[in-house]
Amino acid sequence: MNIRENQEEKEYRNLSPFASHSRDSRGRERAEQECDIRTCYQRDRDRIIHSKAFRRLKDKTQVFLAAQGDHYRTRLTHTLEVSQTARTVAKALELNEDLVEAIALGHDLGHTPFGHSGEAALDEICPLGFAHYRQSLRVVDLLEKGGQGLNLSWEVRDGILNHRTAGSPSTMEGQVVRYCDKISYIHHDMDDAERAGIFSEDDIPITLRVVLGDSCRERLNTMIHDIVINSAGKDRVQMSAEVEEAMRMLRKLMFQNVYRNPEAKKEEERAKRMLKEMYLYYCEHPAEMSTEYRELIGRGEPLERVVCDYISGMTDQYSMAKFKQIFMPAAWAVY
């Protein structure tokens, strides 16, 4: 019995009966020889971490565009916080931590530059539509490794696709990530908003603070414990009605006070116009995209989708540099 088989046997002995066991995975779209050291979900986690799309997350906006300061979250730090929170919950519930980690690390690979404003821009202008959760799956299925994709396990792909609020993950591990994504961004976006001076504890109604706590730390602790307590020994991940409703109201408050706040979003419309102009430009000049994207068109992928692939894969800084290169006269570049 090799190391991987030993780990798979330990999963059967130690994990919850509701956990996803590596040896029972529904497999990959393309069959591969198993690793003698790592389980399938551990391999998926490693493939995601070593992907180009994962590295680019460090220079993609979370909430604050062009934030001034070293401590504001990026899409990468958001991803890492989701992963850590989800692993904490998975360990407490005796679920498969490797599967949870792979889903969490891959869930936002398809995000655009400039956060959800970039996503909205592409969705508005592309006739095929655009959504980051579908794009994340497209990244791992097709765009990585020169058009070959990462060939991930079915359970990881299902968790990535269904991490959004309206999603319905098929595994307990996917359900954990779905909850922890919301918990994490509510917590850290509020922390960033307080740092930016556009939100304070006094903005939170006392009714919510009584249920969830009087600080970001207390609220994070409350939500995590509530999931663990209410999901232990059950075949689905859930929160108590009281805490889930309080979390929903807190999320609504964040949309009103932070996500749509003029200070946080003062550059958002400019960013959207920039990405829309770039979309139109590359639809007219596809030969100016990178080779790997031109090859996708040659393989029969729709032009509009490939242009979205190209733009959504850009970091904030790279997209601004490309816009400047395309639309600003060279003689003006020194000013």
UniProtKB/TrEMBL annotation:
It comes from the Bacteria. It holds the Pfam family HD. CDD domains: HDc (cd00077). InterPro entries: dGTPase, Diverse_Catalytic_Enzymes, dNTPase_2, HD/PDEase_dom, HD_domain, PHydrolase_assoc_dom. Residues 1-13, 21-33 have a biased composition (Basic and acidic residues). Residues 1-33 are annotated as: Disordered. PROSITE patterns: HD (PS51831). Residues 75-186 form the HD domain. Keywords: Hydrolase. GO terms for molecular function: triphosphoric monoester hydrolase activity. The keyword Hydrolase applies. The keyword Cytoplasm does not apply. Belongs to the dGTPase family. Type 2 subfamily. This is Deoxyguanosinetriphosphate triphosphohydrolase-like protein. The lineage of its organism: Bacteria, Bacillati, Bacillota, Clostridia, Lachnospirales.
